[in-house]
Structures are given as structure tokens and as C-alpha cells.
UniProtKB/TrEMBL annotation:
Keyword Lipid metabolism among record annotations: no
Localization in the cell: Nucleus
GO cellular component terms, semicolon-separated: catalytic step 2 spliceosome
Name by which UniProt lists this protein: Uncharacterized protein
Principal localisation: nucleus
Annotated organism of origin: Photinus pyralis
UniProt-listed GO biological process terms: negative regulation of RNA catabolic process; regulatory ncRNA-mediated heterochromatin formation
Signal peptide limits: 1-22
InterPro entries tied to this protein: NRDE-2
Annotated keywords: Nucleus, Signal
Amino acid sequence: MPGNMFKLTATILTLLKTPLLPSRHSTMQGLGLDYVPWALDSTETLLPMFFPIYPIDLTNKNFLADTQRLAVGPQYLKTFPGQEEYLEFLLTTIMNCTDCLQGKEKIAVTVWWFRFQRLLIVLDKESRLKISSGFKKKLKSSMKQLLKSEEHRNNIIYYQEFALFEYQSGNVESAVKILTTTLSTIATNNPPLTEMQRCEICFLFRTLTELYLDTASGDGKKNALKCLVALASDKPVNSHFELTQDLLDETKLKFKHVTLQMLGNEMPTLMSVDHFLPNLITDWIICNGWFLYLTSGAISCGTFLEDILSTIEAATWQKEILFEFYVAVLFRNCMENPGAGMFKLLDDALHRAIEVFPNNLFLLSVLAKELTINCSMGQPWWKINRLLMKTGHAIPTLVLIIMANQHSYEIREKWVDTITGREMTEDPSQVHRMISLFRRVTSSEMCTRRCGLAWRLYLQYLHAHFDLSVCRNAYYAAVEQCPWLKSLYIDAAIYIPAELAQIQDLLIEKQLRLHITPEELDILRN
């Protein structure tokens, strides 16, 4: 069947802890990765929550604060011997996989390779992992080497990905120059544009627009608007013109005409491989949406998107992208105009989007970020609990647990008793709420009963709040449900150190062998 080689490649890479980038529900569904709770034993699957795909700030230091603590070897999150070697192995494996693929499947996996390296830079900036400056130079050098090769030097998508890598590395001017030069090259060399080139041009304009919107400079919005006008008017990206009202009105009509023309055609069914590549319909609609946002405001943009979403009945990848963009626009507006009553609209859009696409990690990251804002704005906890638990999927349930942990971190960090002036700690009601959540997550009717990461989070919480006897009972329940999980046996040294002999007997009884990495040996020795 077509696409089987790509599915096999995706399965191999995810098993090696290379996260889907970005991680969307429809993509996971297409690749058969949406119902695999037993495979979620470490945090790498959730790393796309830190991968920026829209110009909004979702930095959330208390979300998944124990990223490194929950890593399971072989891993690349903790700074231990073999960390960079494992990263090199992963990157080499991805490129070896591309040698077995052809056409757009090869391009999609190469794009994944670019994005994974960009994610490493983002995680390093947020101090969620540490990579040396020498390794960063090696990443950049390998990308440049690929772009210089005869096979790849004319691939526009790779230049766009390299520009975004440069942007995350702090080289904003270089990123802008790469995108504008690439756009100018297409316009100069190919006057009669093919459908693919039109798609790539729209994708580049969208990327450049969002890059301008993400910068802190005062001219960011003006430059973004000029980009959108140039796209709609077929002007060169570097052309000089004034943003007059007549020009903006003309651009608005052009966007509307082309959008209606596109929506008049049947929405194509896409394969999973297409989810990694530019898509003309969604990219054009997003550019149209940004234009409305910058000229008429978030409400106008939201009305435009609601009209389009209402015409797409099936839960397609295109609908998921447009829901993402809708949420991103509303969130950005809430941050720029706090107190304008937009949080209710954001909550409604998030709720509807997550109900249809529960495994979308961007939507879940916005929900987690919203919870941190003043610890009060946004949806009440019971609504979030009900929304994520009823999905029947492991990923939103795990995110719910981590969000509850995040709330506990923020109470300890920010809340102060107004009478005594002392820092607040978790009260018994919060502890009972967490225990109730964990018991429900690990109950027999939940798919997360076989999820190793859920049990590890449960044990970590019990160890911090209760005595060893409570930890012991939960530990043996975890081993019974997830006997294959190596990290559980290593965690025994932390949670029930007095019973290591019994754990060894358990391993012998189950005929299990542990292949230990150097960092895991350090844990056992200590």
C-alpha cells in the first residue's frame, strides 16, 4: 500500500524518541500512533509542546519541570556520557531513512530532520537540555552541507526550515535574509509559476510574516503587513510601497476572491506524508487571517475562520490546522489586550478544537499556558479535567496530570499568605485532588492504566507527599501493569530502597534482563 514505507519510518523514529514535529492528532491517527499508551514511558513524546509553530509566547517553565528527571535511557535530555553520541546516532538514522525513500516522502523526513534540530535549540534555550556550542556548530554545518548538495540545493522547503533554525539560534537578520533571497530567486528564475511553486511561495510568505510578528521590534507588524500585501498583489518581497488605505482595501478584496475560489473546490484528502509539507489552501487562509487580524482585529479574523470551519464537516488535517491558527490568534490577542473579554472566546475555541483533535500538542500547550496566567483566568479546573479525561486518549490525560503538577509548582513559587507573609504550600484538599486524579488515571477502565509515564508521575508524587508504605503499594501495582518498563525497576532505588532484593527476585521470576546505560548505573550506585 502507498505510504507504508513512510509509516514504518515514522514508527522507527518515534520508537527512537524522535518526536513528531509538530505533533497533531490527524497525523498521529494517520500513522497509527494515536492509541499507544504502553509506548508512553518517557517525556520525549511531549516535547513538541515546546516547539513554536505560531508567533505566540508559550514559554512555560513550570510545565513538565522534571523533564530530565523523567527521561529514560537511552536518552538525550540529561547531560551524561553518551548524550551527544545518541543525538548524532538519531540524526544519522533519520538521514539513513531518507536514503530508502523517494519523492515527497524523502522530503518530509528531511524536513523532520531539520525540525528536530530546531527543537534541540529551543530546548537548550529553555534550559530543558544542555548541548555544547561545538555540537550546535555541528548541527548548523550539517544543514549547510545538505543545502549545498546537488540533490537538495533547489529545494525551497529546506531553505525555509534552515531560516527558522537560524531564527531560533538568535540570528534574526540571517533568517529574514534567507527567506527574502529565496523568494526573490523564485520570482526571478521562474516567471510562469507552477502549482508547486505557488504553494512554496505562499508558504515562504507565511513564514516571513509570522517571523516578523514574532520579533519584538516596533516595525514587526508593519513589515508583516507589507509581506501579506506583496503576496496578494504579486509584488516582489523587497519592493518599496506605502501602505495606503486604497492598497489595503484592494488587498482585502484579492484575498477574499482567491479564498472563495479555493473553498469552492472540494477539500483534498491528504496522506500523512503531506502533513509535513506546505499546503496552499491552509497557508493562504492563514495569510488571509493574519491580514484581517492586522487590519481589522481579532474579532474580524475569528468571524472569517468560523465561517470556513463551519464548511469543513470532517475532522481533516486542514480543519485541525485552521483550529490551531484560530486559537493562536485569540491567544495572541488576549496577551496584547488583557481584560478585553477575549478569554471566553479562547476557551470556547480551545474546547471545541480539543474535543475533535485531543492529541494535538499545540492546543494542549495553549491550554496549559492559559492556566498559568494569574493562576485564575481561563477555564476552571473541573472543566479542564472533564474535557481531557473524556477524550479516552493517553496524551491529553498525561497533560492533565502535568498541568496539575504545574499548578502546584506555581502555588509554591508565587502564592504568599497575606497574613503571615509566608510562602504558600499545597493544602490537604489539593493533595487529595491529585491522589483522586492519579487513582482515576490508573483505574481499570482507563487506557492509561498501561501507561508507564502515568505510573512514574504517580510514584513521584506519592514519594514527595506520603510515607514509603503508600509508595510501596503503588510501586508493585505499577510493575504489575507495566512489567516491561525498565525505568520502573531503576526507580525502585529511589522509592523503595529497602526492597531492592525483592525487586531482583521479581526480575528473575519474570525472566527480565536490564541493559543498563552509564547514567543509570550512577543512579543505582548512589
